[in-house]
Design brief:
The structure is a single chain. By secondary structure, this protein is an all-alpha fold. The protein contains 6 helices and no strands. It starts with a helix and ends in a 9-residue tail after the last helix.
Length: 79
Amino acid sequence: MSDGLTEAKEKAGGPVGLARLLNEIGVEITSQAISQWQRIPPARVLDVERVTGVSRYELRPDLYPPPTDLAPPGSEVSP
């Protein structure tokens, strides 16, 4: 299980809580389905981000690399 997925489940109160939150925004899903996730399905990342506040970059860094990873070399901003 990914760290982002674990964090999202914990913030929601477990798979049951996450399913409840997702159902409240119109995503029909069961806690049993969520319990089987090894990674959040691509179609659900933004919904989980919306209901838990866990960033898409944490939930699926393979699909949503952190913005700093997208900057071209040499374009770093000084603090």
